Description:
By secondary structure, the protein is of the alpha/beta class. Helix content is 43%, strand content 14%.
Amino acid sequence: xxxxxxxxxxxxxxxxxxxxxxxxxxxxxxxxxxxxxxxxxxxxxxxxxxxxxxxxxxxxxxxxxxxxxxxxxxxxxxxxxxxxxxxxxxxxxxxxxxxxxxxxxxxxxxxxxxxxxxxxxxxxxxxxxxxxxxxxxxxxxxxxxxxxxxxxxxxxxxxxxxxxxxxxxxxxxxxxxxxxxxxxxxxxxxxxxxxxxxxxxxxxxxxxxxxxxxxxxxxxxxxxxxxxxxxxxxxxxxxxxxxxxxxxxxxxxxxxxxxxxxxxxxxxxxxxxxxxxxxxxxxxxxxxxxxxxxxxxxxxxxxxxxxxxxxxxxxxxxxxxxxxxxxxxxxxxxxxxxxxxxxxxxxxxxxxxxxxxxxxxxxxxxxxxxxxxxxxxxxxxxxxxxxxxxxxxxxxxxxxxxxxxxxxxxxxxxxxxxxxxxxxxxxxxxxxxxxxxxxxxxxxxxxxxxxxxxxxxxxxxxxxxxxxxxxxxxxxxxxxxxxxxxxxxxxxxxxxxxxxxxxxxxxxxxxxxxxxxxxxxxxxxxxxxxxxxxxxxxxxxxxxxxxxxxxxxxxxxxxxxxxxxxxxxxxxxxxxxxxxxxxxxxxxxxxxxxxxxxxxxxxxxxxxxxxxxxxxxxxxxxxxxxxxxxxxxxxxxxxxxxxxxxxxxxxxxxx
Length: 655
């Protein structure tokens, strides 16, 4: 397999159109002689102390990618320039002199630490120059000399010895440097464990599944041949297919079965290619299936998100939900209606990482006591990811096998301002901002939301853990009539409100805001109403007004004196509904989540009005009324003038 890889790899080197190689090392180690001999293909009589940038033409090596070689000065006053050159390198060649052992020691005591200090994270090629001058009485193998250094500095890609004077292995130096850039080892292979890296395994597994057309867990001879043609533009002869499978079976019996080459055998082959230095084979395969140098899908394979305004959001389409539901059932091996962590990991085993293992998705959904994720919880996570990062949704859909046009998996919703005018929202996913002072019960509200379904997995706790960063919780809410909506609760810490509202579009993505207060604490109530006024004022000033509800938490405790009078006055003054009493401790939620969704579905209601907003509206009404009077007066005057002119014309005609 891959016998034509070298010939075709030149078309697939991660979009690279040039390679910049910087040569550094101690004075007198042969840097300039190495460069001149490589470019001129003969040893120069006189070599200047510092060469200008040297370019090797694109046809110098089979990859057909031009190389620019940068020589570096050994003078202390040029250290800043050397550092700049090293930082701009695609690969670094570090030289030592074979006849000067101390220059080899300097690699591990100075040059390699210097690269780390400068945060130069590129392949390093260690080159022993002046091989012809080495003392023949002190012959030591290169592997013996370099093994300890390579163990310490994993960034070293290759070591090689050469002689510019005798023209020994000079072209190979820059060939290996170019190859290390175009086909890097680090993303694919762990040198320490001598195994494929996890991200490489995940990508190759996805490729294997895509090529396994009959889904029998093995690549048959025709499937193996189709793979070969797709990647390398040349078929495999039957004898070659037999030879490939024989190699695998001899080393790894489970790599081949009656149906063909198994996933284990497929991965073994690629590990074998890499061990033998044929990294271009694996990179050709990866790039043919759209992967970049980070082993992620290239950006051009992921469609652009449709243009949208700040008050529009993105949701999954029914087609995408059907696909995700089918995928859920496919990986629910024990048919218990939940994806356990092992099953969920297997579902995302063809993606670089499981997206739900990271913030803000981690612990944002309802799970059972065994960490299992229900279908509704699974779809809730996807709804949250689509709301916050639709590009990530499309990318991960491709990774897990979405076969259609992935742009059909998402849709852009109607503008929220238009929803208010229409007095109804057609969204399936609502985002609720949760405000409130410290210790009001915001986090308890989110926790109870994640235990509000069939699985009571988040018991109430009296322990207080202040929330310092924004946090999300997502779940489905069954509405009257059998409809199901997804609700995203976004907890905003009290200290983060000012930062949030510093943006004009802060409330553009908000469908409804909830203000939580401790019903037993008057100070908590006062601070919650202050936050309500802040948010309502921001909405009035920016045009992004949102429905607001007040939640009186800790209803199991005695209310503070005059609580009813205060809440009644605020509700009347600002035009909001009366506070909704709940007790997370007692599990009494008073249908609060249904009420939140219902208010979001009717975005023209429950919008608070501040005193400043009321005055502004009265002023505008007064201005409009005055303009109307002026307009009517002007119209009457014009009509009167026209009537007078008609009368005067008739009078003149009769006389």
